Amino acid sequence: xxxxxxxxxxxxxxxxxxxxxxxxxxxxxxxxxxxxxxxxxxxxxxxxxxxxxxxxxxxxxxxxxxxxxxxxxxxxxxxxxxxxxxxxxxxxxxxxxxxxxxx
Length: 103
Hints:
single chain; mainly alpha; two-stranded antiparallel ribbon; 3 helices; elongated; transmembrane helix; membrane; transmembrane
């Protein structure tokens, strides 16, 4: 008799867990904005975290600012070699004076 109660309890708990997972997936795939917080949680757990997702610019000025920051990132920079102090750029894989591998 106790075996029957134990098996029944385990089956009920497994059914509740599977039902809960089914409901979370169903809510996450809905197109309505009612459950957007569930979608964010599921995307954070199984996809790219929210802080790493690219944010859509709120307005055109934000796009212009983003374009300016990207163009400044593409400019050549120059900094001293950590070993000898010789000025090197990102184009140098090896320092010309001390042969230290930079990248």
